[in-house]
Amino acid sequence: MTAPTADIVVGGRTPVRQEPQAQTDAELLVAASVLLADAALAARRTGAELTAAAASWRVGLQALRRPGWALGTALSAARALSNPGGLGLAVNGGMVGETVRSLGAVTRRRPACVAMAVDAFALRIEAAAREHPNLAAPLAKRLTDAVVAGRRLEVLRATRELVDLLGVTRTLTTISPVIMELLALAGLLDENPTNDSFAWVTLAGGVPATDPLLGLPAALIRHLNPGAGRAERTEADAMLARVLERSGNDIVRYIDDISALGNHGLALLRSVACADGTRRHVVLLPGTSFGRLSNSTPQDLVGAFDALLRTDTTYSRSVKQMLVRAGVPEGSELMIVGHSLGGITAMNLACDLDFVSTYRLTHVITVGSPIDTKRPADPTTRVVSLVNQHDVIPGLDGRGPASANDIPADWVEFSWLDETYDYPLSHAPQAYADTLRSGDVPHRASVNALITRYDGEIVGNQPYLLRDK
């Protein structure tokens, strides 16, 4: 049996345990993709600026005064914006620009910025394949090559053959390191101009605020997740009570507790009489229920998409209601541990200035959560992220293995590759707990060393049932 491999990242991509070394091929490919992405974004901005200048009312006013100059200027701008040897059909921005750009997308006339963006994404995919050899397997490479080339029929054929060979879950796991790049390319190379922003935001390293297929805005998701949030005390069932009895200030125990809570609306508020005499609190937040798109709890798929794009969600509001109902005093020290959507919600609360002004949020520990684009409002909040590199979900923030984006300097990320290859097993809290418990990776002791201020006697374990409204 092959032991898992592990990395510790503190505020960047360099593993703490490694000595400085020459750049690998993958690193060089990522560096080249960054240069191409910068060039693509600069060319797109240039097209937008030229479009705005050409459509300006000031140009129209000057045209009335100096028609010869206006004609020459219009012809020069048109050549700059449409020359296939230059910017290509680079018109974008404003009513006129977006109309012309849409017509260009429908007729598959693509500007230079799109060509450079495609090459940048292709380099990212190639870099990921160097570190994830399954991406270089013939069928997987056939699929990624077809996406890069914009051959949609070939994409469908390759996907069908890959699913026939591997099954749905292993196919998803195989392409998971580059899922954001593939979605961005699909949006950039189709005839639908409304979903292009997904690709450009992904290229720039942000979290898209639209869906990759139709380009629907995140505001629509907010309307599907409108609840004020509610929290009600409940009692632990026999199984949960047994798990909580053997809990303690240990990352594996916390993940075991989250697993026992399930994902049907429960959260846990723990009170700890700490060794230094201070009463502190730990909040445990489970992840998403995949049974239905939406249900009566904040732990549904709609809530997950909402939490990824925004910070004020029904889940975060429910947690605040829980703390108020429990009577947690203002100024109390809190640590929040969350899996998947629970981890995103923990970071959303850390981003909430009112929340961190009310409570002293000392630690956020996330397990399999896409949080890398969020930043705590209180810079003293310690962020610790645990990532199984076979897990699809943490990469949904756009920071996949081929991304050039780094985590902030004061964050700690513990990542590893283990044998839970297939999604959703690789995402399950039990899989994270089992790997840390086995000792095959050294991260259990490392995380526990960061949270020693919560050592002490557990004096309260109160489950709460969270509801949308």
List keywords for this structure.
469 residues; 9-stranded mixed β-sheet; alpha/beta
What does this entry look like structurally?
It contains 19 helices and nine strands. With 469 residues, the protein is an alpha/beta fold. The protein has a nine-stranded mixed β-sheet. Strand 3 (266-274) and strand 4 form a beta hairpin. The relative contact order is 0.13. The model is unreliable at 13-22 (pLDDT under 50).
Outline of this structure?
The chain has 469 residues and is of the alpha/beta class.
Give the arrangement of secondary structure elements:
Blueprint: E1 5-10, H1 25-54, H2 57-65, H3 67-82, H4 94-106, H5 112-131, H6 138-149, H7 152-166, H8 168-175, H9 179-189, H10 196-204, H11 218-224, E2 230-233, H12 238-245, H13 251-261, E3 266-274, E4 279-285, H14 301-309, H15 314-326, E5 333-339, H16 341-351, H17 353-358, E6 360-367, E7 382-388, E8 412-417, H18 429-438, H19 443-450, E9 456-467
Parallel strand pairs: 4-5, 5-6, 6-7, 7-8
Antiparallel strand pairs: 1-8, 2-9, 3-4, 3-9
Helix pairs in contact: 1-3, 1-5, 2-3, 5-9, 6-7, 6-9, 7-8, 9-10, 11-14, 12-13, 13-18, 14-16
If strands are numbered along the chain, what order do they take across the biggest sheet?
Answer: 1-8-7-6-5-4-3-9-2
Calculate the terminal CA-CA distance, rounded to whole Å. Answer: 48 Å
Query: What ranges have pLDDT less than 50 throughout 5 or more consecutive residues?
Result: 13-22
> Tally of extended strands?
9
Shape: globular
- Radius of gyration computed on alpha carbons: 25 Å
**What's the average pLDDT?**
84
Helix fraction? Answer: 40-55%
Number of helices in the DSSP assignment: 19
> How would you sum up the major sheet?
9 strands, mixed
Proportion of residues in extended strands = 5-15%
Class by helix and strand content?
alpha/beta
- What order do the SSEs take from the amino end to the carboxyl end, as H and E? EHHHHHHHHHHHEHHEEHHEHHEEEHHE
